[in-house]
Specification:
heterodimer; A: alpha/beta; ten-stranded mixed beta sheet; two-stranded antiparallel ribbon; about 35% helix; globular; B: Peroxisomal Thiolase, Chain A, domain 1; Peroxisomal Thiolase, Chain A, domain 1; 2 domains; 11 helices
Chain lengths: ~375, ~350
């Protein structure tokens, strides 16, 4: 039987479009010191550092982690799974602790994409240069295609996308890691320019920089600390080719098969059989409203064909489960860190330390991660009770 | 805790073979590892990869390459790190009870990139790149520091070069092409590694097999070259020390040591760091110790980030008596080492034992 592992501390910088005054190492230092203080642990007690840095090209410096995250003398390796980097890094550190290799680890995710002059071109370089670039497949058009499928197949409308974006914008106002977050209504979203139909500009996540750090501890070290236990954690990888995922026995492109199976595994580990009743809070890695909507069914927060109705309750503020109380990635989306931020926010909610954005009675929270054209999915269940 | 065993290995080593794409090479290496382990892809429940976007030439390269490595509807994590770190993480998943059987794979296609450019791009753009440093020039600086203390030792260096070339020549897995990076004084061209296109894979599992992982060790040092003693190789020394402590063995008990290089001096000077050679005796010892890099080290084929996994595979082949013409007689215990840029700032060590 492997050891139980918990998140004992969280540290975050402000998430800004660009941190012009701070180097990568300075951002990391801020977040690390906050996380260590939160966990009440000394840096010398850390037996592993896992760095999370996604495509190097975004930072403009290759292997930026070597000068900003590495600590001399401490075991280190770097994870890169695109948008899922932060959660993949946490999964790797969890394995390390469960295997008994050390009692405490730091997961450090850093994003410096504000320094890229052409971030969209960098993102678009993930697509196949022969088959896909000629048809203008980009990160935006890929999302637009899925949003259209959700509208055709499940009954979502552009009003849902606008309403969800406005809901997240409102939640973001209480998030102290954001600097003057955008506040807008559904009408504002619909009035903003169209990027690729049906995606409006105000629905798209902003470019964001920052660092997020989590302190993980194995059970023997936890003591009386107020922690969020990792009750379940899983990740799954799919084929790259979206055409192969359009229609297959496991479902269509918008069924998020990898998230379904990741959630099944994580729920099973956590003993969750009725997610809609047993989960109190969800942080979904969704840079667009349609990406958030895709996850509802995959996480079994609602029944089949009731996705639009569930979205209506979220927009109206009457849903039992809190979805993206931080504002989610639509408020800030530092790519390398965003999946770890989702986990960190869930940990804060479970520990009752989320400040103004704290929701009532959160005993169990679920964080998702998505990377590489929704090819990589992760699901982490955190709870107040030790597994 | 469950122990982690090695069930099989697969390797594709070549140079500029336009018959196959990178995903095809990866697929071939992973298929060979599965075949060697007599396991089916359906039995695999975890995949740990090591690959670098800059080497592969596209952002988030594992989107395309991960499925070729067997990561289709399976748990998968990709490290941007030397392949030995992936071995270590894969074994942690098994020891933690999270996986029964894992694929660990690493690849790099040196023939499609410009090593000097990619290596330099990994260094600080303000403080280091203007000095035209790269991985090989760091090796030159390390050698310069050693020469300042011990003299040029031309003859012993030549003997070390000849020994490495002889071992690589006997190793049927060595790359055939003779393409080497440009090196700077005091390095000689013959001390540089031979570039290779590499796809390598191993199968790790919980079920007992002839080879077991008994210890891992890792360490790191500062990213600022100026604050490091290059010849001290602190990260490598600490990783080895931790790996030995975890396996409750000593360096003298190793029947085989696979060092990462990439140059002859990097491989040889590591012997002084690990107390296997007295100060000033590095090259003589490297030439005379047959159990140090019997594969031929960097001369048999070198490409970041595959080297640590290549070393691990060589150890596995030695311990199972499958190393061919470079097979050693004693084969109970071995250590594989791997390093990441720049100048071995990050180091990994894995101890293997015949079960």
């Amino acid at each position: 039987m492997s050891r139980a592992v918990a998140i004992a501390g969280v540290g975050q910088t402000k998430y800004l479009r660009r941190h012009a005054e701070l180097s990568g190492a300075e951002l990391v230092r801020q977040a690390v010191l906050r996380a260590l203080r939160d966990a009440d642990i000394d840096l010398d007690a850390i037996g592993l550092i896992v760095g999370g840095v996604a495509p190097d090209a975004l930072a403009g410096v290759n292997h930026i982690d070597l000068s900003s995250i590495v600590r001399p003398g401490t075991p280190y390796f770097r994870v890169n799974t695109g948008g899922a980097t932060g959660s993949s890094a946490l999964l790797a550190a969890t394995s390390w602790l469960r295997a008994g290799r050390c009692d405490a680890a730091l997961v450090v995710a850093l994003e410096r994409m504000g320094h890229a002059t052409t971030s969209q071109k960098v993102f678009n370089s993930i697509f196949d240069p022969i088959y896909e670039k000629d048809i203008s497949l980009s990160t935006i058009s890929m999302v637009a295609m899925r949003a259209t499928m959700l509208m055709q197949e499940q009954g979502f409308t552009v009003d849902h996308w606008a309403g969800l974006a406005a809901k997240n914008s409102k939640s973001a106002q209480l998030n102290d890691t954001l600097d003057r977050p955008r506040l807008f209504t559904a009408a504002d979203v619909l009035a903003s320019p169209i990027l690729a139909w049906p995606i409006h500009a105000l629905e798209a996540c902003p470019m964001s920089e920052g660092a997020c750090v989590a302190v993980l501890m194995a059970q023997p070290l936890v003591g009386k600390r107020k922690v969020a236990w990792i009750q379940g954690a899983a990740g799954l990888t799919d084929t790259y080719a979206m055409g192969d995922r359009m229609r297959r026995p496991q479902g269509s492109l918008v069924d998020l098969h990898t998230l379904i199976r990741s959630a099944e595994k994580a729920y099973s580990q956590a003993g969750i059989t009725r997610p809609a009743e047993q989960i109190d809070c969800v942080e979904i890695q969704a840079p667009f409203a349609s990406a958030e909507a895709m996850a509802y069914l995959a996480l079994r927060l609602c029944e089949a064909r009731s996705g639009p109705r569930f979205a209506d309750t979220l927009i109206a503020g009457t849903a039992r489960v809190a979805v993206n109380p931080s504002g989610g990635p639509q408020a800030a989306n530092p790519v390398s860190a965003t999946a770890l931020i989702r986990i960190a926010e869930c940990a804060l909610q479970v520990r009752g330390m989320a400040g103004l954005r704290q929701q009532d009675g959160i005993r169990r929270a679920v964080a998702t991660g998505q990377g590489g054209a929704t090819q990589f999915s992760t699901c982490v269940v955190l709870g107040s009770e030790r597994p | 805790m469950p122990r982690c065993f090695v069930h099989g290995a697969g390797l594709r080593m070549g140079w500029a073979d336009m018959q196959f794409s990178l995903p095809e090479l990866i697929y071939q290496a992973v298929s060979a590892a599965l075949e060697d382990s007599r396991r089916h892809i359906g039995e695999i429940d975890s995949v740990v990869l090591s690959a670098h976007d800059l080497v592969d030439g596209r952002s988030l390269s594992s989107m395309v390459t991960a499925p070729a490595a067997g990561a289709y509807l399976k748990e998968e994590i990709r490290l941007a790190e030397d392949g030995l770190a992936a071995v270590s993480l894969g074994s942690a998943q098994i020891e933690a009870g999270e996986a029964e059987l894992s694929i660990v794979a690493a690849w790099g296609r040196a023939s499609e990139g410009d090593h000097e450019h990619t290596s330099r791009a990994m260094l600080d753009p303000f403080m280091l790149q203007p000095f035209a440093l790269d991985e090989l020039s760091i090796s030159s600086l390390r050698l310069s520091e050693w020469i300042a203390r011990h003299g040029e030792c031309r003859e012993s260096r030549q003997r070390a070069v000849a020994a490495r070339a002889g071992r690589a020549g006997r190793n049927s897995r060595s790359v055939q092409a003779n393409v080497r990076p440009r090196v700077e004084f005091p390095l000689h061209a013959s001390e540089a590694p031979r570039f290779a296109d590499v796809a390598a894979a191993v199968i790790l599992g919980r079920q007992e097999s002839p080879v077991c992982i008994t210890g891992v060790g890792h360490s790191a040092e500062s990213g600022e070259l100026g604050s490091r003693k290059l010849g001290a190789m602190r990260a490598l020394r600490e990783a080895v020390s931790r790996g030995l402590a975890a396996s409750r063995t000593t360096i003298e008990q190793m029947h085989l040591l696979q060092l990462p290089g990439p140059t002859v001096p990097d491989e040889a000077l590591a012997l002084e760091v690990l107390d296997l050679a007295a100060p000033g005796e590095a090259f003589e010892m490297y030439a005379s110790l047959a159990h140090i890099n019997p594969s031929g080290g960097g001369e048999s084929g070198w490409c970041f980030p595959t080297v640590g996994l290549l070393n691990f595979i060589e150890c596995y082949l030695q311990l199972t008596g499958q190393a061919g013409d470079v097979q050693l007689a004693d084969r109970q215990r071995a250590m594989a080492l791997g390093v990441s840029p720049a100048g071995a700032q990050i180091a990994h060590a894995v101890v293997l034992e015949a079960a």
